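Task: sequence design from structure.
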């Protein structure tokens, strides 16, 4: 059944395929990856590592009541095999944990939001997890031009903390993802038209390297590493904190609406999207293939969501642009503050899409399996989109357990992205206009 999703990805990306890496986790082997924590006694952890950690740091073994929460991930597909969790409270704690793992030949995993779903995570055997969720500092500079963010801060926290000061920065749209995880691979969101990718707003970083060395990374300090971290950062080290550019909120209101289109309207809809000249204020236009039982249990519909930053008069032509296609349903547009836009789009910390990803806010049923099949495009190929729709329909009809699976097509404003010279960062996909992915979803204890 997963082969259908790879086939769909191949159809969409035959001419311009790439895998988008926006995971929030880093997997590194120790010196020889030859030991496992089960062979290292708890006493040894306490003697050799505990004494090197700050008083607010902690170590959790499988018997710890917190262990399950600390090792829960967004998807059960790629959990890894974790035997010990270290919760650092400082950058020095992270460095100490990395050095301990290196000395003892332990594989270790740095965890931000827990969204990484690469199959490489499953190569971890009895590994050491370095959970960054206590690194929560959010400190706005005295001149109001930047903010220092800890490695465990999530998007929800960033948006709300900055909004209290009339400020904003580039973030992804999902409230439960870490700020830094997606940033190291790119980072797509509503403010791309204004401020570029999330990575384009990183000023400097504090990074723990694979040998436990702490490095200050910026355009003037370790500039080659700075270039590589911005686009391929998951491969080089653990970011414990970073300074980001911040800005005055460009508009106090967002306007949001959603349209429902039937399958026969596919070509007309995507041709319309191809033809639009998306302004920076039209931050996001995304379309979802999904089963909505209100319309049909066998025929997928297409849900089109719009977010516009500006006044009602400025937003109305863009809602009319799609309403003129005669959708089968339209949700009346809403006027939203910058902190309300995530909940309205079902992307906030308590949404279904966040699931168990941040168990400090919400704990859902174990066993949810999500898999992402992403790629980037310049334009939609209408023939390929129709074939993907048909494959999607085949999947959810032949395998009803996958009826919460979706195909998502995201168009973001690109003005801020294009304003950055492509060669100035390691991000390789700056010329792509569209992010497409199929998200397969399977509930626990499925009959499939």
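Answer:
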């Amino acid at each position: 059944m997963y082969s259908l999703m790879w086939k769909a990805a191949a159809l969409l990306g035959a001419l311009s395929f790439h895998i988008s890496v926006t995971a929030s986790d880093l997997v590194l082997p120790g010196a020889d990856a030859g030991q496992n924590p089960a062979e290292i006694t708890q006493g040894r952890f306490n003697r050799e590592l505990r004494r090197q950690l700050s008083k607010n740091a902690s170590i959790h073994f499988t018997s710890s009541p917190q262990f399950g929460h600390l090792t829960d991930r967004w998807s059960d597909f790629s959990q890894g095999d974790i035997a010990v969790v270290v919760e650092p409270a400082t950058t020095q704690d992270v460095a100490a944990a990395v050095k301990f793992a290196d000395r003892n030949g332990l594989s270790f995993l740095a965890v931000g939001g827990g969204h990484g779903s690469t199959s490489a995570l499953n190569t971890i055997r009895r590994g050491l997890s370095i959970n960054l969720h206590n690194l929560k500092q959010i400190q706005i500079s005295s001149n109001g031009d930047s903010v220092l963010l800890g490695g465990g801060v999530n998007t929800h926290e960033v948006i709300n903390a900055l909004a209290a000061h009339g400020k904003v920065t580039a973030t992804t749209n999902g409230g439960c993802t870490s700020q830094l995880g997606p940033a190291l691979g790119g980072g797509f969101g509503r403010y791309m038209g204004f401020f570029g990718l999330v990575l384009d707003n990183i000023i400097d970083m504090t990074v723990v390297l694979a040998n436990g060395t702490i490095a200050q990374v910026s355009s003037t300090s370790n500039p080659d590493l700075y270039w590589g971290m911005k686009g391929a950062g998951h491969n080089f080290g653990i970011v414990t904190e970073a300074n980001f550019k911040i800005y005055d909120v460009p508009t106090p209101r967002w306007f949001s609406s959603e349209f429902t289109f039937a399958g026969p309207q596919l070509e007309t809809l995507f041709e319309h999207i191809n033809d639009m000249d998306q302004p920076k204020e039209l931050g996001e236009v995304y379309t979802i293939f999904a089963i909505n039982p209100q319309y049909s249990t066998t025929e997928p519909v297409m849900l089109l969501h719009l977010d516009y930053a500006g006044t009602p008069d400025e937003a109305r032509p863009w809602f009319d642009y799609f309403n003129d296609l005669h959708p089968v349903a339209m949700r009346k547009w809403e006027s939203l503050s910058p902190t309300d836009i995530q909940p309205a789009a079902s992307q906030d910390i308590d949404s279904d899409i966040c699931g168990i990803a941040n168990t400090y806010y919400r704990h859902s049923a174990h066993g949810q399996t999500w898999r992402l099949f992403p790629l980037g495009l310049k334009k939609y190929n209408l023939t390929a989109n129709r074939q993907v729709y048909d494959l999607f329909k085949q999947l959810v009809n032949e395998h009803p357990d996958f009826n919460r699976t979706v195909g998502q097509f995201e168009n973001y404003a690109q003005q801020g992205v294009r304003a950055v010279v492509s060669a100035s960062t390691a991000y390789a996909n700056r010329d792509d206009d569209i992010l497409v992915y199929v998200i397969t979803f399977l509930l626990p204890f499925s009959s499939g």
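The chain has a mean pLDDT of 83.
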